[in-house]
Amino acid sequence: MSESPLTGDRFRIGYALAPRSVSSFIQDSLLLHAKQRGVDLIKIDLDKPLVQQGPFDSVFHKLYDEEWKKQLEEFSILNPTTIIVDPIESIEKLHNRVSMLDAVSQLKIENVNIPLQAFVDSNESLQDAVGMKFPLIAKALLANATADAHQMFLALNKQGLNGIKPPIILQEFVNHGGIIFKVYVAGDHVKCVKRKSLPDINEEKLGNSENLIPFSMISYFADNEQSDESLAKLMEAAEMPPSSFVNEVSKQLRHALKLHLFNYDMIRDSRVENRYLIIDINYFPGYAKVPEYETMLTPCFLDIAHQKRSRENGNLDQSENNKTHEAESNGHKMDQLENNKAHEGESNGHKMDK
């Protein structure tokens, strides 16, 4: 289906999500907030070809199978000004933890980095990785929607590595005061929240008999006498990174990733003042966990819809320019034709005179 021009001030945003994502992301509060601001969120029917649906100013999606890729390609050919959020080739870089953090190296910000990490693809290379400093976090190679992708371990020593099955990513654990900053990005709109994280690990705890600990049992390191009240005080006392800093990191990261929708986990290194480490990046995260998430997503929808309309206007302007140039060219051709006829007449007249 070819794209039809959209009129009026309302914007149509199509979304294609798995059922579990729909229930957690498309909530009534978001639908209402968006609608009040001129944005209609429209569920894409996954049982029908995408090219038969629309028109849309933008298509948001969190699907990656080959059939869906083909549908997006066909839709984009017929609807070149509709903005797809986001390109699958950009998303896929976040599904592999080898490439996930590559974009951080492109940031032009001195005090932002990633922990030392290594890709381990065999038991032999696993033992070679012991040059890294323990404890080590072991993460699955693929970062996708499967349960295995979210299963992580903390290896306290070399013996702990024996219980890990490659391929995996090993990442040095850095003490960070038990607080992690989760930064949610939706285009130019950013929100940072702080969450409880793994507690700091000292040498005494490293010397314990445990060698490998699943993250699900990581409370083993927490002080058993630490009350909910003391944890609340810890959270309250944790200083948030400056908003200007978070916004700049997010902006540069967004351009490096070529994505609109993602979040990243960032910690503050306890050993070095104001040194931050990005340890994980996720595509299309659970925005509904963010307080008032509607107020960051709706402006993002509007920004993208306006961008699409600008593309349309640009195409229309180009089309008008082409028509003008064509008309001028035809006019010149007609003038040239008339001139040729005039010259031809004069030439024939001279021949008759002779």
From TrEMBL:
It is an enzyme of class 2 (transferase). Belongs to the ITPK1 family. The keyword Metal-binding applies. SUPFAM superfamilies: Glutathione synthetase ATP-binding domain-like. Mg(2+) 1 binds at residues 265, 280. GO terms for molecular function: ATP binding; inositol-1,3,4-trisphosphate 5-kinase activity; inositol-1,3,4-trisphosphate 6-kinase activity; inositol-3,4,5,6-tetrakisphosphate 1-kinase activity; magnesium ion binding. It comes from Capsicum baccatum. It holds the Pfam family Ins134_P3_kin. This is Inositol-tetrakisphosphate 1-kinase. Mg(2+) 2 binds at residues 280, 282. Residues 311-354 are annotated as: Disordered. Residues 124-302 form the Inositol 1,3,4-trisphosphate 5/6-kinase ATP-grasp domain. Its cofactor is Mg(2+). Binds 2 magnesium ions per subunit. It catalyses: 1D-myo-inositol 3,4,5,6-tetrakisphosphate + ATP = 1D-myo-inositol 1,3,4,5,6-pentakisphosphate + ADP + H(+). The keyword Electron transport does not apply. Residues 12-91 form the Inositol-tetrakisphosphate 1-kinase N-terminal domain. Kinase that can phosphorylate various inositol polyphosphate such as Ins(3,4,5,6)P4 or Ins(1,3,4)P3. ATP binds at residues 97, 139, 171-182, 197. Gene3D superfamilies: ATP-grasp fold, B domain. 1D-myo-inositol 1,3,4-trisphosphate binds at residues 62, 150, 182, 282, 286. Monomer.
